[in-house]
Amino acid sequence: MPKTYEPDSRFVERLEWQLASEYRRLDRMKPAGKIAIPRRLAMAGVMVGILMTGVAAIKAADYIKDSWRKKIEMARAETEVALNKARLEYVRELAAETEKRFSDGLVQEEEYMAVTLGVEKAGLDLDRSVLNLDEVKASGAPPRHELYAPLADGRDFVSERLRIEVKYVEADLKLLTTRWKRVKDLAGIAVDSGNELDWVQTEMDARKATIAEIMKRLDLRERFLAGVIMAQEVDIMDRMATAEKNRNQAQAKVDLLKGQMERLQALEAQGMISPSESGPLRHALDAAQAELKLASIEVEILEKAR
Amino acid sequence: MTEQQLMKIYQETIHPLYGYMARRTGGNRELTEDIVQESYLRALDSWKSGAPPDIPLAWLKRVARNVLIDYLRQKKREYKSEGDLGSNAGQPTAEDQFESLELFLAITSLGRRKARVIEAFYYDGMKVREIADEMAISDRAVEGYLRRARQALKSLLPDSEVDGGQYA
Predict the structure, then answer these.
(1) Could you tell me the pTM of the whole model?
(2) Domain coordinates of chain A in residue numbers?
């Protein structure tokens, strides 16, 4: 085949690196409870992390800076900003209507709070999308979330994005706290069986754990930028923090379901419910225990890789 | 799909996909690289949450071809006025690249089967018998498609060398 129809070897290597990097970036954005990472993939991720620091990352950004891909990324980021602006406007109008109905006594405090916090979260979504657009303009590359990502045009987009995440989770926590108070009052007068209270408590604990995890990540990021730790360590420590959080949340879920199971079994023993009614809960408990086992394995693997 | 699977597919498909696209862009390296890159990124978006297709190369080729068509339709006028093809030393000239891209765009406007036959014969270097087997038609049918496609292209591109030229 003529050389014109063969790819340049540097292009092949760069694209391979870019795909691996993008795969891991998408993986990191997955919700809690992801599958355990085999050790060699974790180590490959660490090696890529070393390569990604500094020169290789800059070269990749240079590579796509003037290309067609940058135009697509810019268009995507601008569209995201426009959509979030429109959404924020809409949510603000909804909040104004809800405020009026709340003052007329037509809606409960929790509903009003949910809508108000919705405005706050829509504002944070907009902030995040503006930040992403700024990063694409600065770096010519899609936004990066790795703790070892270099600064773009002298700006630390990774930390800025993490701070927005903290505010986002804090908004959720506010709403859950209001709900917890309401459900606690109902449990106090024996209107609630205790199941919902346990569930709300678990959700609150999960949000607090997430905030703690993000703060740890911010700390790791600061130490990496200060040169106190290297990219390789940052990656492992970051993954470890996430894996430990996932394991703790999985444990909390198992404990919650076990408590509910015990209550159901007590009712079953009194003949107040049939055995088949506890079936779905039993399945949920089995699934949660499997999730806990996977999360524990992930922590073990990362401990060995450290 | 695991990362390992993705990398394996990449290693198996990068050279044939690049060659497939380079033939259609008239050897324009920058454009080919952009399209190949875009195709793999779309593949990652599409395959990551499930399983890759049975024949990843066919999927990638289809996506790359569509990306090129969209791009050319958008850029057609710009090419004519600016000749913005970034020709480098050792590569076909900007003029050649423009003609190649114009020809490819014309081919895509033929019927699906005519386009497939023309591309397979001229771009992919397949023999009539191979094309007939792939499309499950007779050799005479392939020759008929080729003849009608060339006639259609002649009327679409009266100044290009469709018969007896570099594409014969």
Answers:
(1) 0.47
(2) 176-306
